[in-house]
Amino acid sequence: MEHAVLIANVQQFTAIAIGLMIGLAGVGAAIGVALVGAKFLEGAARQPESAAALQPKLFVIAGLVDAIFIITVAVALMFAFGNPLVALIK
Predict the structure, then answer these.
(1) Domains of the chain
(2) Site annotated as Reversibly protonated during proton transport: where (predicted)?
């Protein structure tokens, strides 16, 4: 019975960690994309002729910020479906 309780505790804390990972990564990505977008709009408002040069940079940085979120979701899914911590207990 002790072994089952230990596995249940690991799964319980893993679920909490998954929620925190996805939640914080989502908030961080939203803040990051919002800051990049705001700075792009500020730069385009100050110098409208440079908006065409700034726009590709905006999309590259926004893509990199979203890639961090997607990697975090992938790691969270790895913990959800193939938890290596449970394998250490067995």
Answers:
(1) 1-88 (1.20.20.10)
(2) 66
